[in-house]
Amino acid sequence: MQHDVVIIGGGIVGLASAWQIQSAQPRLKIAVLEKEGGVARHQTGHNSGVIHSGIYYKPGSAKALNCVRGYRLLREFCDANGVPYEICGKLLVATDTREAEALPGLHERGEANGLTGIRHVPQGELTDYEPTVAGLEALWIPQTGIIDYTRVTQTLAERFVERGGTLHLGEKVTAITRREASLEIVTDRAAYPTRLVINCGGLQSDLIASLSGAALDVRIIPFRGEYYKLRDDRKHLVRNLIYPVPDPAFPFLGVHFTRGINGDVEAGPNAVFAFRREGYRKSDIALKELAGSLLWPGFRRVAGRYWRTGAGEFYRSYSKRAFTRALQRLIPTLRQDDLLPGGSGVRAQACSRDGKLVDDFLIQQDDRVINLLNAPSPAATSCLAIGETIARMAQGHL
Fold it and tell me: Which of 57, 281, 368, 389 has an alpha carbon within 20 to 30 A of 109's alpha carbon?
């Protein structure tokens, strides 16, 4: 079958893009290809399940614009389709004077992004929000919520198929061939002629882009995030969400506490350079992928600049005591034996050739291919807004 659009990647952004293109142009023949046996098997299914409010992101950036709009679209979709979520709020805690000095700027940034009701919480009122937390002061962000993004993605897939889209699972893309007026996507099971390719391949997005002939100045570098879970009898330590003030020099939020929609409480994640793109365990190594990361000149510059931070992340990865100490900055009464092994995820972080960890969403396109090359957090919250953007691009192509 000749398709109008083939989307590579069955994560939340791929399915949200399929849904939005289908909504805008119902007559198009659209297919989604996913190499795993189900949707949401990688970044989508391994994140912390937070609906982000938009407080962190530079006003006017793609992250800020898509997060704020995506927040509303996500809630509307979930309300219409019976997907449960909870808006529980988040406490953003400063534990030293440097972090405290950053709070007014974050407050202003949140308001510039359209958030209302942000409240400065002085030290004496912290325990009104989280009874076990410690810090100098904090911000309360009421818009933050929790959700199961795997369920959101499954629902998007169901609605997409109900409206005539096709979803092909267990098919890994091996080649993309350009014809005179179309392209052909070849998988390990079939071939798909199409007018337009949309690459939402996440951890594999740069490799897929290269298959289409794209010349890239970025490389995906995988960072594993590892979690612990609080024992059932210690879940009372956390009411909702407790976050530290992020380090502005590093694009990760630091270890924090998250109550999930299922009632579990996760602690983490760290951010450890992974030796395999889908390396969810410490022992996962793919020599070719590891060499690809190490030989990328941009990553070598990043490693040279952040080696102390990286070494600290590796230390916490192998030392539960060190991981616990990092968490105790927020909850001093936390004990090492309160923590049980949890899951892990791998973040696809684009790194530019000149040595920068790309901080914003990044979409590149040519005449027949749209490549989503950087979609870290808050991409899950932003998925339907990103999908709108990609749908507009697709409309221009078609």
Answer: 389
